[in-house]
Task: structure prediction
Amino acid sequence: MTQLTAGLRRWRPSRQFVRYLLVGVWNTAFGYLTYAALTWVLSRHVAHGYLYAAVLSNFVAITVAFFGYKWFVFKTKGNYLREWLRCFVVYGAAALPNLLLLPLVVNVLIYVCRVSPGNRAGQAAHFQITAEYLSSTFLTAPYIGGAILTAGTVIFSFFGHRHFSFRQRGAGNTEANQTDHQDSVHD
Result:
């Protein structure tokens, strides 16, 4: 039984990663609400206001996420400007693979929902409601594909922030190092 318990502890996420997910949930909601509010305001005054809203809301959301990560997740001291700029680098590096993979994932989703094993292309799939729904609206598959790719972005961003954005130089006795040590002891 102790081997089973030890094995389960190894697979349990660290407290730091749980805090990262909580800050991420908050920031996702905050970022979307910021985008929606800016879209509502800017679209009344500027053509294609939603595009400006997307840029501005990303800037604000990344900045809010930075403070959440710095103060509550990685608990680093000082280096505000360097860490803030590194957050933008990590989010940019996470966005590039998503932009490249999204069309592939969307097309795979549409293909999988239209063709099931044992059926030839063009015949009705076993889950016809989903295929019908996906083919009736162009926007559904991209939303599902984006949600699928979000999981990879979360994991990539966590390690990017942990090892790049909020990396501590030297073996100083920072709160973040103490937290990592405590998490590894409990894991």
